Amino acid sequence: MSNNIYxxxxxxxxxxxxxxxxxxxxIVPDVVAVKPTDFRxxxxxxxxxxxxxxxxxxxxxxDKMSQNILFASPVSGTVxxxxxxxxxxxxxxxxxxxxxxxxxxxxxxxxxxxxxxxIKEAILAAGLWxxxxxxxxxxxxxxxxxPKAIFISAFNTAPLAADMEFVLRDEFENIxxxxxxxxxxxxxxxxxxxxxxxxxxxxxxxxxxVIQHTFEGRHPAGNVGVQIHHISPIQKxxxxxxxxxxxLAAIGKLFNTGKYDVRRKFAVTGPMAIKPAYxxxxxxxxxxxxxxxxxxxxxxxxxxxxxxxxxxxxxDGFTGFYDNQVTILEEGDKYEMLGWAKPFRPALFSSSRTxxxxxxxxxxxxxxxxxxxxxxxxxxxxxxxxxLPMDLYPVYLLKACLANNIDDMxxxxxxxxxxxxxxxxxxVCPSKIEIQxxxxxxxxxxxxxxx
Length: 451
Hints:
Blueprint: E1 3-6, E2 23-26, E3 31-34, E4 44-46, E5 53-54, E6 59-63, E7 70-72, E8 77-84, E9 90-97, H1 116-125, E10 132-135, E11 139-140, E12 150-153, H2 164-167, H3 172-182, E13 190-195, E14 211-216, H4 224-231, E15 240-243, H5 245-257, E16 264-269, E17 277-281, E18 300-304, E19 311-312, E20 325-330, H6 383-387, H7 394-402, H8 406-411, H9 423-428, H10 435-450
Parallel strand pairs: 1-14, 2-17, 12-13, 12-15, 13-14, 16-20
Antiparallel strand pairs: 3-9, 4-6, 5-8, 6-7, 8-9, 10-11, 10-15, 16-17, 18-19, 18-20
Helix pairs in contact: 3-5, 7-10
């Protein structure tokens, strides 16, 4: 029996470009990138050189601080380029993929007969440990720590997010295997949150060995951080782990097939996407591989992830390790004369009823990246509290982060949040403040001073 939690606060962004539930094909990759920048706090150690041959599952990076945490190549091929930035910072390992994929054979394993240590060793050896994220701070989980519990969100309420039932409709057995394995790693159980509006319609409610919860409400109801806050808030000194559904399927495939297989369905979405739909691809796939979905004559922004929390990777970039969505927007570089003075702007959505979008609640908008204003003074108001369904004082937490006041950051909830939980606060902010960056800087300070 699941317990239902209703969230009154939040906001569903009415943006156009939702992906149709059809798969337009499989992307045969030319070059795939492994990006250390996808992982917070990682100090990478390079394990390969240009020209080396690799298989899918061959480790290409390791964590210098915990060298048993490996990062594997998603494809078989040849290391084509090692990309470095300022001060020789490692940015990407680019791998030219083979036409026929070959995999490292890690061996099929029966989870029921394995101990917790054997399960950890299997996930670590295959390079799938980075799929487990530790809270607080959103870093790769420490394999030496036993978490209070493990949390999984089985639905996503972010703008234009991929539909989990469609993406994972053939992965039920693998997900169940992964849950059985993760149950061995904690005494607090595996908690899975489901969408209350589709509880009986999703196959995930039939999963065993999970503690089920249902959530009802607008975005960010699907954020695992919001769910943890309402199920079992993180206190100082406590650790929990989270795993996304797509990575859960990859862990299950490791035990059931013996392969490092991180292929997934990506939702290609956004107002500027041509016939938005799904494609099967690898994490680290080049944006140029999606050329059938956009018109290069426009000035476009390519986001790996959703519009609120995704990374602007550019047309020459690559998708992220954790992402299964690409959003294509037009750059908001067109000047609108006296736009602020116009009383009626039907093409724009307003969360504060500044315009008349509230009269057409079902309308979808072709949003672009225009901020419609610039940064202003940080004014104390209640707009953040209307979209943040957590019992926190967001303004006080943000000001504590700005002041680098660790005591106040702890008092106001830094252990419970990541940037994604404050994404809507940034969207509705009347001062146009980069709130997610403030939270990110606060977390970086906590990692530096407390870990």
